[in-house]
Amino acid sequence: MDDKLMLMIPGPTPVPEQVLLAMAKHPIGHRSGDFSKIVAEVIENLKWLHQTQNDVLILSASGTGAMEAGIINFLSPGDRVLVGCNGKFGDRWAELSKAFGLQVETITADWGQALDPETFRSVLEADTEKTIKAVIITHSETSTGVLNDLETINRYVKAHGEALIIVDTVTSLGAINVPVDEWGLDVVASGSQKGYMIPPGLGFVVVSPRAWQAYATAKLPRFYLDLGKYRKDAAKNTTPFTPPVNLFFGLQAALRMMKAEGLDNIFARHQRLTTATRAAIKALNLPLFAADSAASPAITAVAPDRVDAEQIRAVMKKRFDIVLAGGQDHLKGKIFRIGHLGFVSDRDILAAIGALEATLQELGYESVSLGAGIAAAAKVLANS
Fold it and tell me: Among residues 73, 192, 220, 265, which is most buried (max CB within 10 A)?
């Protein structure tokens, strides 16, 4: 059936109707007073969402662009950085850092496992000469459904005294509590197509006063992603380059929706959906890829052992118009990923689990007891 596609992937995520309608309006001049009013409101609400009084800068870029900006504006060639790598995106930030001539040292964990904060502590405490200039962390590792312990790692970075902490919150911002000012995070990057509930195209970077001090002496090349330009123009409620005007319309509407729901309710909803999804997967006798203790509130990765992951995805798409994400790199064909962040509700989880049960039956998966997944999810949702 046309127009019934249901996205259950970690991005792009579903977009609310009122956001779509806002984006359908005719564009206005990006140097107009009317647009400046929208920018002012959006910046104010972004600070609310990030729980910060620091600069929140808006880029016409993906989450990767936001992370690149977050790295190149505060470091110089040859700087020593620690990068946490336990999935595709941690690996990406290591590759990006090497591309800009940084001295990269990785702290790794197997894909599906959380980074060990104590390893960071040991390396940071051993750095008595204070040569480490930044620690780069992926909070929610989208490729595996693992949530890293950002709060503890950040505490060790703060004890170091010199290093900045640069954080990828692309699939955690808007899904889990990230109190930027309370934790003293220096650089926080995210993207519009995740918890923000709008299409891809905007990146966001929060910058602390400590990071701005580093900016003053950083020597990596930058122009379009020079955050100093964005800071200067944001103070005047404008942008240094032509922005995607209609995405700002959508962002304005989405942030109003988020404020109406409230931060505590947003975080509680994502936790409820995560718990319900994982309970359903267990009831269907499908192995989860990440442990409960490291489960991301944005996405659940499943590693089926007696049925092909890509066949599951294919049947879900063909028969039910539900799109699940596949595995990346060496996990391709070995896992599938269920996104439950952004504009996702209890009903969406029940629909996806019901379709998954029917898919497993069609594929001859003998370990499934029909109705078990729905019952497990419904029990969580009823008691949350």
Answer: 192
For strands 80-85 and 299-302, give the pairing: unpaired
Long-range contact set of residues 29-32: C-beta below 8 Å, sequence gap at least 24: 30/238, 30/239, 30/242, 30/243, 30/245, 31/238
CATH superfamily for domain 263-382 = Aspartate Aminotransferase, domain 1 (3.90.1150.10)
Q: Are 276 and 356 in contact (CB under 8 A)?
A: no
- Find where tokens 């995805």 sit: 313
Summarised one tens digit per residue, pLDDT across range 153-208 is 999 999 999 999 999 999 999 999 999 999 999 999 999 999 999 999 999 999 99
pLDDT digits (tens, 9 = 90+) for 4-40: 999 999 999 999 999 999 999 999 999 999 999 999 9
pLDDT given at position 94: 98
Cβ atoms of residues 154 and 165 within 8 Å = yes
3-state secondary structure of 275: helix
How does strand 299-302 pair with strand 336-339? antiparallel
* Closest residue by Cα to residue 83 from 135, 121, 130, 143: 135
Which residues 6+ apart lie within 8 Å of 145 measured at CB? 289, 290, 295, 296, 298, 299, 300, 301, 337
- CATH 3.40.640.10 domain span(s) along the chain: 17-260
Distance of CA 364 to the CA centre of its chain: 35
What is the identity of the amino acid at 347? R
- For residues 263 and 265, give the distance between their C-alpha atoms in angstroms, rounded to a whole number: 5
Question: Helix 245-261 to helix 263-283 angle, to the nearest 10 degrees?
Answer: 90
Phi, psi (degrees; rounded to nearest 5) at 213 = -65, -40
Q: Which one-letter DSSP state was computed for residue 19? A: H
Nearest to 109, CA basis, from 129, 92, 85, 93: 85
In the chain, DSSP assigns E strands to 6-8, 55-59, 80-85, 103-108, 132-138, 140-141, 146-147, 164-168, 187-191, 203-207, 299-302, 322-326, 336-339
The architecture of the domain spanning 17-260 is 3-Layer(aba) Sandwich (3.40)
